[in-house]
Design brief:
The protein is mainly alpha-helical and 145 residues long. The chain has one domain: Orthogonal Bundle (Arc Repressor Mutant, subunit A). Helix content is 59%, strand content 6%. The protein contains 6 helices and 2 strands, in the order αααββααα. A hairpin with a 5-residue loop joins strand 1 and strand 2. The chain is globular and about 60 Å long.
């Protein structure tokens, strides 16, 4: 499993939207792009995918933009990965055409690795990421004598 630029940018966009969720504020594409340093054109595609995946909603009008479709506490990193990369939560079944014990062992270990990765991604929400970001920013602002 690899973190693609597409998925990283999507998660960055979701974090920006999560930060504004409690205020009820929507963000326009250009605002997200500037805050997260994401190219505008690329961001349009990502937001469309996230909208189709049910993670965000678009709001029309002068004060329109994008908002999260659910509370940040209810959107996991696994939700974002699934939306952007089409990951299936279910670990694939063993290949019925497996002919060697070695191949079977490799498949079992790969299934275990996938389950562990999915478990970690399911554990963290957008809210958790926002809290971790706030802690890191606070640590950066600390002065030591």
């Amino acid at each position: 499993m690899e973190l693609s630029n597409k998925t990283e940018y999507a998660i960055l966009s979701l974090i920006a939207l999560a930060a504004c969720y409690s205020d009820g504020e929507s963000l326009q594409i250009r605002e997200i792009a500037v805050r997260q340093n994401i190219p505008n054109r690329y961001l349009e595609e990502l937001l469309a995918t996230l909208r189709r995946g049910g993670l965000i909603k678009s709001i029309r009008g002068v004060k329109g933009g994008y908002v999260l479709a659910r509370e940040p506490q209810k959107i996991t990193l696994l939700d974002a990965f699934r939306c952007m990369q089409g990951l299936d939560v279910d670990v694939p079944n063993k290949n019925p055409t497996t002919t060697s014990v070695e191949t079977e062992v490799i498949q079992e270990i790969w299934q275990e690795a996938c389950q562990a990765a999915y478990s970690v991604l399911q554990k963290y929400t957008l809210h958790d990421l926002c809290e971790q970001r706030a802690k890191q920013r606070q640590m950066e602002n600390m002065y030591y004598i």
